[in-house]
């Protein structure tokens, strides 16, 4: 008898479980119509949501300014949990990669999904270095920039200009399927990774009115330092601590999901834009002070504050909305994430070589006050990676305006990884968000000025067009 009761309870539990559906029931109070929308991976498809219509049959659209809760695609590149402060590249924690890996190894991981073997890493590094030379014509173009031009502007322009040297990468010229060949795709990836330090160093040298340095054999970061600082007649060797510090900084900045810049690259790729202009577009998005330009903005903010003694007054101005606090808050993170903590450790190592940077103490004072202030705690505003990264770069000798370039160089890896992943997505479509029009309608044109010699064309389309009507005039034909 007891077994029968247990069996009945089990059957009842199975029935209840079967009745639970992975759907969202929506009742439209305007029409009284009830909709059941499927839920897949804890997401509702906007396409299914479009079945909801008003009494006139108009589709009810989903509005989400800034894409705060809109998923535009799947990715295997990185995992971000803003509530827990977790960041993983292809399943590996960012802390472990920063401690044990190198930037080139991480670049391989992000682009090709797995950590490389020793042989794969050697081949990958060699391919990158073999593509590090800047075309002489592009060097000449960069030489034409004003000396006070922003390095990021030069970087973006040069990356876009690089596309003209690779017609085989242009789908308009080489065919819509020019990236289907993995070998050709890898060639452009290696080329962009290899040439970006050369472009960056050229922008740095040009701003300092110095001749460009050609790349040389060696490590990725060592070669970058060489192109930045080598002078004729000297045997420049970068300090190994600074090389390691910049390598770790590059790892920390290499990837962060569908960020503004990665989304921009995917957006451009959806139109079948060539990879060089996709990357230039990503760099342009990164340039903004609310994205990669924030490290420059933070540094300028710290320079404006000047000293620890001025921090409390500055914080009060921030709370009164008289000043803007940079280096705090993040779209994703609602806790104190790991990256700024690692950057603080890197800063101390750099100071042992270059001397302590006073602005670091200003940043620490801001951090200490903000972490205890209810104003910031309530708003869940915690330090982000930009609070300390600019200070590290300044200690290394970089000017504030070069900080976004130092962000763009490693983030190239993210853009290339997402670009390649997007090309392989069977569900990819050209990106075209919906809009809500709020402007004028049906306005009648009223001439505002008298144009005597204006050519008038009758745009009334006839039912049929004869050959005589489309016959060109000899007067305007080429001889």
Provide a descriptive summary of the structure in words.
With 479 residues, the chain is mainly alpha-helical. The chain has three domains: 18-66, no CATH class; 85-294 and 400-423, Citrate Synthase, domain 1; 307-391, Cytochrome p450-Terp, domain 2 (Orthogonal Bundle). The chain is 50% helix and 5% strand. It contains 20 helices and six strands. The strands form two sheets. It has a three-stranded antiparallel beta sheet. A three-stranded antiparallel beta sheet has the order 4-5-6. Helix 9 (182-207) runs antiparallel to helix 20 (403-423), helix 12 (260-270) packs antiparallel against helix 13 (275-287) and helix 12 packs across helix 20. The longest helix has 26 residues, at 182-207. It is globular. The active site is at residues 330, 386.
Keywords for this entry:
3 domains, three-stranded antiparallel β-sheet, mainly alpha, 479 residues, Citrate Synthase, domain 1, Citrate synthase, acyltransferase activity, acyl groups converted into alkyl on transfer, 6 strands, Citrate_synthase_sf, transferase, tricarboxylic acid cycle, Cytochrome p450-Terp, domain 2
**CATH architecture type of the largest domain:** Orthogonal Bundle
Question: What proportion of the residues is helical, as a percent range?
Answer: 40-55%
Distance between the termini: 105 Å
Q: Please identify the top-level CATH class of the largest domain.
A: Mainly Alpha
**SSE sequence, one letter per element:** HEEEHEEEHHHHHHHHHHHHHHHHHH
Output the CATH topology of the largest domain: Citrate Synthase, domain 1
Count of spatially separate domains: 3
What is the makeup of the main sheet?
A: 3 strands, antiparallel
Number-wise, the strands total 6
- For the biggest β-sheet, the strand order reads 1-2-3
Shape: globular
Radius of gyration: 28 Å
Query: What structural class do the secondary elements suggest?
Result: mainly alpha
The average pLDDT value, as a whole number, equals 91
Strand proportion, as a percent range, falls in: 5-15%
**Which homologous superfamily in CATH is the superfamily of the largest domain?**
Citrate Synthase, domain 1
Count up the helices. 20
Low-confidence stretches: none
GO molecular function, one term: acyltransferase activity, acyl groups converted into alkyl on transfer
Family: Belongs to the citrate synthase family.
InterPro entries: Citrate_synth-like_lrg_a-sub, Citrate_synth-like_sm_a-sub, Citrate_synthase, Citrate_synthase_bac-typ, Citrate_synthase_sf
GO biological process, one term: tricarboxylic acid cycle
